[in-house]
Amino acid sequence: MSTSSPTTPLSPPLTAPAAPTPARAARFPAGPAADPAGSREEHRVRSFHARRGRITQAQAAAIDRHWPAWGVELDGAPLDLPGLFGAAGRPEPLPVVLEIGFGMGDATARMAAADPARGILAVDVHTPGQGNLLMLADRLGLTNVRVANGDAIVLLRDMLAPASLAGLRVYFPDPWPKAKHHKRRLIQPSFLDLVLPLLRPGAVVHCATDWEPYAEQMLEVLGAAPQLANQDPAGGFAARPDFRPMTKFERQGLAKGHVVRDLLFTRVPDLP
Length: 272
Ligand SMILES: C[S@@+](CC[C@H](N)C(=O)[O-])C[C@H]1O[C@@H](n2cnc3c(N)ncnc32)[C@H](O)[C@@H]1O
Description:
Helices cover about 30% and strands about 15% of the residues. It is of the alpha/beta class. The chain has an 8-stranded mixed beta sheet with strand order 1-4-3-2-5-6-8-7, sandwiched between helices. The chain is globular. The chain binds S-adenosylmethionine. InterPro entries: SAM-dependent_MTases_sf, tRNA_(Gua-N-7)_MeTrfase_Trmb, tRNA_methyltr_TrmB_bact. This is tRNA (guanine-N(7)-)-methyltransferase. It is an enzyme of class 2 (transferase). Pathway: tRNA modification; N(7)-methylguanine-tRNA biosynthesis.
């Protein structure tokens, strides 16, 4: 897979569209909706921070313009992935890779542009990032990106069909460094229990982190699954692949002297 330079930032356009930000609260509330499974699930431990970043006018305008066609609300209803990616005159639906926690979407947009034969379903709870990714998709003319709003756990638990994913990407998930918060880390056995049945044989699981203890946890969790084969023959971390662009979080980690770890695993077929 080729890609453009991983270091060139995809900055937003200098001039925002002139239109005022329309009222859109009813259709697109900031942050994730209530868990459709109800109040018991609602109180489960979450892997994301509740944050309300400032949304720019351009990001809000991108949401207003593109959400009806490219946006997905995580409402718990089964998601028709082939239908979601099969439009735009394609004879065949695209194989779909799920990216959890895309942040501002710069890496997502670059990887989608470099690989138009793959659909990217990108999920995050962060409204400004959703707007930013929609803006980048529009600017780059991407037809292979869809943006989901909500907790990825709802998507994995309730909305995706078995063997429907051709890959999973989790880049720089919140590290939750304090011991009392480790339970909030996304990559843990209960997460993998949800993910594994959704991956088709050959699907690639790609994680990256700059937080060494979390990298070790990822290696332990992914390495313990017999359904996953580590692409590193020595059973360790992978070399940094050139197709994964640099993100703000990675740059910040490197600036602090952290070592960035990539993990690449392949879903093997279930034993008969
Ligand atoms: C540290 S940021 C990394 C963003 C991006 N991958 C990057 O490298 O720049 C982690 C992101 O994951 C998102 N996130 C964490 N848990 C999530 C979940 N369960 N569902 C959806 N998004 C989640 C957060 O909102 C945040 O935007």
